[in-house]
Amino acid sequence: MSVTGEHDPSALPPEEMQRAQLYALLARLLARPPGGEFLAAVAALDGDASPLGQALRGLADAARGTDAAAVEEEFNTLFIGVGGGILSPYGSYYLTGFLHEKPLAELRGDMALLGIARADEVKEPEDHIAALAEMMAGLITGAFDAPADLEAQRRFFDRHIGSWAGRFFTDLESTPSAAFYRAVGTLGHRYLEVEGKAFDMAA
Questions:
Q1: Which domain holds residue 116?
Q2: Does residue 153 form part of some domain?
């Protein structure tokens, strides 16, 4: 995604930076397979005793138990494949059963209002889960303009992520071909639950 404004993310409260970092982590892992250096950074993650913290520890354990070549092969099987991967990580597909449908058009409309544009080199439709996670991170940090307030974040989350991504992450958790990405699915699933509850409490 390309940006239309700049903001110093260091001015954000620590809890907001942590939210943005979790979205950015999911975006990076789901956009392309991690190389060796990034996989080593994931292996060094730690978490607390909460369900989300345990999911972070599980992801770190999964990273320590594999290597970049194996993760790349798994990524290709899950999301690319010959004629398509096992899972389709697009909002339109989960919401309508087809790609490039009304949810994508609605997302593009909201992106225009928020000053978010797809980068020229990006070929995937904007409703890919990695792109949506990246957008949420940018809304929190102010990558596209000033940081979005919680109400704007909630509208975007409810409309474009909360409506379907939980099912995607649950599918990823339970897909037999997933090993490292099963842990990614667990992290995504638990993080969306935390986000949904937090938005509800702030309403």
A1: 12-202
A2: yes
Rounded to the nearest 5 degrees, what angle is found at the Cα of 28, between the Cα atoms of 17 and 111? Answer: 75
Count of the separate structural domains present in the chain? 1
Q: Report the run of H or E that residue 118 belongs to, with start and end.
A: none
pLDDT in tens, 4-36: 445 566 678 999 999 999 999 999 999 999 999
pTM of the predicted model, to two decimals? 0.94
Q: In this structure, is residue 1 part of a structural domain?
A: no
DSSP alpha helices (H): ranges in 9-101?
14-31, 36-43, 51-64, 68-75, 91-96
Is there a domain that residue 7 lies in? no
Number of H helices, E strands in the chain: 10, 0
CA dihedral 137, 108, 91, 99 (to 10 degrees): -140
User: CB 153: neighbour CB atoms within 10 A?
Assistant: 19
DSSP 7: -
**Encoded tokens for 177:** 């071909």
Any domain includes 3: no
Query: 118 burial class (0-12, 13-18, 19+ CB within 10 angstroms)?
Result: middle
Nearest Cα neighbor of 200 from 153, 164, 160 is 153
What CATH number does the domain containing 120 carry? 1.10.3480.10
Instruction: Report the distance separating Cα 25 and Cα 38, nearest Å.
Output: 10
